[in-house]
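task queued by scheduler; priority normal; single chain, no ligands, no partner chains; default sampling; output format set to structure tokens
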Amino acid sequence: MSLPSSWRGRRADLLSFGSLAGLFAVMTAVTWKQWFNPVIDSGREMDQPWRVLQGQHLYSQVYQLYQPLGPYIGALLYRVFGISLNTLYGEGGVCALIVLGCVYWVARRRARPLGAWAAGASYIALCVFKPSGVYFFPYSFAGVDAVACSALAMVLLLRFVERARWAGEPAGATQPSGFGWLLTAGVLTGIALACKVEIGAAPAVCGFVLLLRWGGARDARRLRWRRIALFVLPGAAIPLGAYAWVLRFATWKQVVTDSYVLLYNLPAGLKYYNSWKAGTNRPLHSVLQLLLENASWFLICGLIALGARTRAAGRFPTWRELPTLLRRLLIWSALICLLAVPLRLKYHGPLGASPLLALGVIILLTSRWRRVLREQGRTSDNAVPAQSAAAETGQSESDVAGWSRSDWVLLLLALHTVVISLRVFLRLPSGGVAGSFLLPLTIVFFTWITVEFPAWLAGLPGIPAEVSDGASASPVEKVQKATSAAATAACWATGLVCVLGLVVTVVISFRYHAQPEMAVATNRGTFYTPPELATSFQQALQFIQTHTRPGDSILSLPEGSDLNFLAARPTPERYEIFTPGFLDQAAEKDAIQRLASSNTQFIFVMDRPTGEFGAKALGVDYYQTLMSWIYSHYRLERVLGRGANPNSPIGSPHFWIKIYARRSPVKRHSS
């Protein structure tokens, strides 16, 4: 007895998503609590929500580089679930699972269960568990929260496309209006914007473009603006409300200066870092790299199509029997790939081609839309006749313009890919620090286009006209061969994406165990890190417990407020991070004054090279004034770390933590 097709589809989805959940669980066990580097960024993510929970205010008392909502979410979770690393692990893990569900659901809009599985597996490998970008403890929990809200907002927008009544459909249509989906999508977009504006911008732009172009016949203008208001008002009110809240305790100048909202005061260190990440530091090299990644993708797709056509024809076709487009594609993509050798371009994989491919899809869909309008004797600015024509024919304006629901889904994912990758358009990373936040739905778009484009190439006219016995093939046989070639190409491309996802997952799991890990157990949670770091941090925490009391402040430089959080000791400074560019001369003097007026007995300086900001060594290349004051008022008490000594410079082969004790006695407040 065979199951109905709907049951078979549900069973396939259950098996596919269930295996993804199993893969997620296995990778969680393999990487258990090895999710962060205690020297870089992590201290800020632990300590900021704790300081907010204690009543300190962002921007005025606590430096905040990003938008204001993230630390308040962390503080709320601390209040509900306890002040612990496990709370943060749980926040990241739940967000990762939410995004995984969104990735699978969105992928199924145009892909079969196996294709959706391939997208989900790639997301797990490149985003959730890739070192330095792990969702369980990312460089910014605000980013993880924003990605989860952004992905959910995109799901609701796509649901609106699929289910809402298209303007111009018959009056008796029973589809819902979609107002609830748009309102919820607006709320989620607002939360994402209030956490990380560059991530929330993607669903914001997609939603606005969708609703602005979503036409209508009866009451079109009023309905359109009602939908836009439902989406835009909560999307704008939430970030504005978050800023209004923090402005009760901070000035506009503090907010603008801390988070560089207007970009006019962006420090040199961040400019250097951003240009390095975006590829604008070497623009010509980055453009060539982008061309190489696109050429490699086209070459792979062309070879898949060529193999599928060969299989369908039963023999290898001659060069002239191939479609002109496929011949040109193979020649030019192969030439560009060969040029990479003399130009010494490093190949990072085809995923970097996604932004340019997405831009191409947007241009092609828009061109087709304009062409259809011209053929119908209209222009894109003459909207009222278009709506009237739709009303008379009982069609939607989107149908009249040549766009189907499926086209809208593809357009929105392509637009999302372009918007979210704008900062790194020339050099899209394959995971890691920033890529983890940029890639989830980009991977879905990449999977779609990687499966569909080879299938389209394989089905182009050009299948050999002669069958094996020399007789001319009938039109029906030609169509059958083209259909078979397209199906084969889609199957092979899907398998290739699946294999790549599994290979990357295996490689990443081995990278976690390439070196031994050692546990650091504290009252606020446990983490695993390389023995050099673990030994130093364990000794530093023991030193704090034996030489300070609760309430005594300590300072960790340039990053390392993990010690403050794990030992439950406050910091005297506004800043959690003292990397190049964040402190100007006034802020450096303010940091000295805060330190001088505090009862800070000990300062912990860590071996943290900061070359990615353009200046490597604290006190040598930057913040010389601050460190000179510290050296004159504090003495070196102890050096922690295997093989380290008092003369070990920043960037030495062995990690170290130097403890400086105040020269004059500290006055303790009576308890």
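post-processing summary
- The two ends are 79 Å apart (CA to CA).
- The first strand starts at residue 518 and ends at 522.
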